[in-house]
Amino acid sequence: MDRAAFESLVAEALDGIPEEFGRYLANVAVLIEDEPSPALLRDLGLDPRHDSLYGLYQGSPLPGRPHDHATLPDRITIFSGPLTRDFPRPGALRRQVQTTVVHEIGHFFGLDERHIRRLGF
What we know:
Elements: H1 3-15, H2 19-22, E1 28-33, H3 38-43, E2 55-58, E3 74-79, H4 80-86, H5 90-108, H6 113-118
Parallel strand pairs: 1-3
Antiparallel strand pairs: 2-3
Helix pairs in contact: 1-5
């Protein structure tokens, strides 16, 4: 899958976020990178030889912010390489990109990994 088609999948996933949640994402940058770096994986406690990553949220979750919170935008990074390798069929890739985007947005809203997984993401 070429870069433009992958970007379209991410845009479609973002467009599917209900407005009541989407309006809070105005100061969240969504980036697409090819691969997570080995250093990033190690920083997250993952083994670069065996583990990978589909997405990553970096920032201050919304519920813990003070009323005068003013910093750089939060970031959600979607990694195209691991996703396209693990989900080679277009329908499966589309579903997993949607799941990954919602999963990372869940972190922005303050949900932990366990809670997000219980919700099916």
